[in-house]
Amino acid sequence: MRIEKQRYTERFGSLKINDVQKVLELDSGRRADMPLKEAIAVDKIEEDVIKDFEEKMAIVIPIKDEKLKLFEGVISGVPHECLIIVISNSGQEPVDRFGMERDTLEQFCHFTQSQALIIHQKDPVLAQALAQAGYTDLLDEDGKAVRDGKSEGMVIGLLVAMLAQKEYVGFVDADNYFPGAVWEYVKCYAAGFSIAQSPYAMVRILWRYKPKISGEIYFRKWGRVSETTNKCLNSLISSKTGFETDIIKTANAGEHAMSINLAKILPFASGYAVEPQELVSLCEDYGGVLPTANQKVAKHGIEIFQIESRNPHFHEEKGIVHLREMLLQGLSTVYHSQLCEEETKRMVIRELVAQRAAKRGEEPAKPRINLPLRKMNIKSFIDFMAERMDSYSALKG
Ligand code: GDP
Ligand code: CO
Predict the structure, then answer these.
(1) Within a domain: residue 134?
(2) What is the pLDDT of residue 208?
(3) What is the per-residue pLDDT for 36?
(4) Ligand 1 atom closest to 252 (CA)
(5) Which bound ligand lies closest to the C-alpha atom of 118?
(6) How far is the CA of 388 from the centre of ligand 2 (A)?
(7) How far is the CA of 172 from the centre of ligand 1 (A)?
(8) Which long-range contacts (CB under 8 A, 24 or more apart) does 349-353 make?
(9) At 161, which CATH number?
(10) Which atom of ligand 1 has the smallest separation from the CA of 148?
(11) Is position 276 within any domain?
(12) pLDDT value at position 66?
């Protein structure tokens, strides 16, 4: 794969936020022995290097009641070397949708000999393992089950990836229409990690186009929700540095990946606040404005890559109410940040009212933020779950 070199990086304390890097070529051909003429501007990431990173990566697919055909397509797009981890919160009654997902995955693994795990978010064993590990943040009021939410599914996926001793985790939504796009996202994750210098790295995907169908297909560059969330997050940063910036272009990137090292120190917000909250928390903890959360991490620095994929992003459209909810939850992370000053707060409120995600005079609710994983006893979770892992494996025999 060939991607643009990092041309521009903004530093905010120990955070290095790289401007968008475009994918230039999906398949960059055989390894060349000669020095590359284009090397000043372009990084060529060799196939075997990508494979090495895929081998160390788990792909976590959170899923809730998606069309089975979409799920089937998504898993077919995950490169073979990756471990697939499906965390499902799909219904089991009256129709056992979870059972159907498991069957689909088992059949896929049978014929491809891929490695995959599938766990239901409400599996009581998970709740027990979390309680034992002192991580009740993720559990509902009675402490008997993991709460609903995509973010909660992601966190379970991260823990299972740690159990499987992976070094990187990439997230891919189950409602992607194009298996080719899924394939490309994972290549981009691997490419980003291969360039990273710090053990604390994150890759966020920016899509080139997000098509809308209304009569004919229109290839839109940005969704309104991401545009607004980016703007408010950039305003948050600008107000602290005194220089206007538009560096953040992937505030809502559901398709993103991180090193396990980084995953351990990140607090994850519930629901759709999760992706923007990652950036907000990094700015708070390592932006150099508030006290630094962890000196060791700060010494290494944290690298964020934003890679623009070639495939258009096409997923299930869940309607305007869903979009408003996403906007509200996303912007609440900015609004309630300790870094947020009056001007950005006003901007958030203005946007929420204009897009009818909040009423005039209403404040967004505080996001619920789960403790970073390093505060729990990860080893206890792993020990508890390890004995039972076979039953979650989709590759039998
Ligand atoms: P959007 O793509 O950001 O608009 O949000 P989606 O509603 O498509 O959700 C993203 C992914 O999370 C999809 O694959 C959903 O099926 C999945 N998802 C949504 N809610 C839950 C949940 O409660 N638990 C799990 N495990 N996955 C969820
Ligand atoms: Co979606």
Answers:
(1) yes
(2) 74
(3) 86
(4) 3
(5) 1
(6) 31
(7) 10
(8) 351/228, 351/231, 351/232, 351/327, 352/327, 352/328
(9) 3.90.550.10
(10) 23
(11) yes
(12) 97
Mutate to test the pocket of ligand 1, among 69, 87, 100, 175 (most ligand atoms within 8 A of CB): 175
pLDDT per residue as tens digits for the range 36-58: 888 899 999 999 999 999 999 99
Ligand 1: atom nearest CA of 315 is 2
Return the best residue to mutate from 60, 61, 64 for the ligand 1 pocket (most ligand atoms within 8 A of CB). 64
Q: What is the pLDDT of residue 45?
A: 97
How much is the average pLDDT of 240-254? 94
- The structure tokens 């209403």 sit at 362
Which ligand 1 atom minimizes the distance to the CA of 316? 8
Q: For residue 191, what are the domain limits?
A: 2-392
The answer on pLDDT for 219 being more than 70 is no
Name the residue at shortest CA distance from atom 8 of ligand 1: 175
Asked whether residue 397 is assigned to any structural domain, the reply reads: no
98 C-alpha to center of ligand 1: Å?
14
Residue list, ligand 1 pocket, CB within 6 Å = 62-64, 66, 87-89, 121, 148-150, 153, 173-175, 254, 315-316, 318
Residue 63 in tokens: 């899923």
One-letter amino acid at 232 equals C
User: What mean pLDDT do residues 76-103 have?
Assistant: 98
Contact 26, 187 (CB under 8 A): yes
pLDDT above 60 for 30 = yes
| Number of domains the chain contains | 1
What is the position in ligand 1's atom list of the atom closest to the CA of 175?
A: 14
Average pLDDT score over the chain: 94
Between the CA of 173 and the centroid of ligand 2 the distance, in Å, is 6
Residue 207 Cα to ligand 2 middle (Å): 13
For residue 155, give the ligand nearest its CA.
Answer: 1
pLDDT for position 213: 64
In a domain, 13, yes or no: yes
For the four alpha carbons of 182, 323, 69 and 58, in that order, the dihedral sign comes to positive
Lowest mean pLDDT among 165-174, 313-322, 328-337: 313-322
